[in-house]
Amino acid sequence: MGLFKRKNSPYYFMKFQLNGQRIYESTKTKNKKFAEEIFLNRRNEIINGVMPIREKEIERSYTFDDLSGKYIEWMSGRQKGAKVKGYIIGILVKRIGKLKLNQISINDMEQLQSDYLKNDYKISYINKILTVFKAMYNKALDWEMITEEDLKRVRKAKQLKGENKRLRYLSDEEAERLIDSCDNYLKPIVITALNTGMRKSEILQLTWDRVDLKNRIILLDITKNGERREIPINNTLFKTLIDIVRRIDVPYVFFNQKTLKPYDNHKRSFATALRKSRIIDFHFHDLRHTFASQLVMKGIDLTTVKELLGHKDIKMTLRYSHLSQAHIKKAVEILDDRCKIVAVDYKEEIEKL
């Protein structure tokens, strides 16, 4: 028995043991003193049998259907990837929608993985399904739809190994060729991507009130992971932005001159620019990889790169770590020159003897 706080919840929770099973309840208060009083009263009630924990609090009758509806409603407007997640949730609902949350097992998820592997789906896609599933269970615990034992059970499901983490980036010379090959409207968009590492959606939805040219900062309030991010404006980007003709009646930095709305698609123009610049196997998102890769290769530490990219976990940034090895090696090789000088001086001293 005891009091504790959960991650992402402001309330204190109570933990009890009943018939060999752990039961968790919320005190519905943020005040620790009040929570302690509630806990003591609740414990005495259970000990004295005055108010035993109700069966429904133990068994939980929520289905995955119940959770999916609540989760979709919660993530709408909060997460940039809500549309993609919604599609994945639809896949899960078809398979396990009618199952109770406390009945879903590791076997259910491993069977899903096996079925998708047999149908030649990419490992990265299958792993994305499991990631969404686990994220939903984390929220289910916050919403008291499952117990911690339920969460621990599904967390044992493992991601598939062998995922091919694609990392394609441009050299400085390739980046210059690409910029020179872009149409006039596309060029500032590509320059912004190469100098900020912003996602395509973040660039196309960027408004002037988020751009502080005086302090040279771009402020992103709504990002993929839901966290605020500040991006410095370097000289190249600053010159690009001040050259853009602004319209008082249009809030967007990049917009279609005919519709006065932000561009929703530029695949054809980008593909043309790639063809002209003789660059193959490259996507717009790879401009973000180029930004990060060039920083790492120029000696910027991974923690700084993580902050600039807006990664929630350093593990996501570690994919660029191998790029720094050659440059670290060169840095250490500088010491060779010093050693050569010492060796020459030592040789001269011996000859004098």
Automatic annotation (TrEMBL):
Keyword tags: DNA recombination, DNA-binding
List the GO molecular function terms: DNA binding
Swiss-Prot/TrEMBL GO biological process terms: DNA integration; DNA recombination
- Name the source's superkingdom: Bacteria
Spell out the InterPro entries in the cross-references. Answer: DNA_brk_join_enz (IPR011010), Integrase-like_cat_sf (IPR013762), Integrase_catalytic (IPR002104), Integrase_recombinase_N (IPR010998), Tyrosine_recombinase_XerCD (IPR050090)
Q: Does the keyword DNA-binding apply?
A: yes
Name all Tyr recombinase domain ranges: 165-333
- The answer to whether the entry has keyword Transmembrane is no
* Similarity field: Belongs to the 'phage' integrase family.
The protein here is known as: Site-specific integrase
Task: Record the organism.
Answer: Acididesulfobacter guangdongensis
Lineage start: Bacteria, Deltaproteobacteria, Candidatus Acidulodesulfobacterales, Candidatus Acididesulfobacter
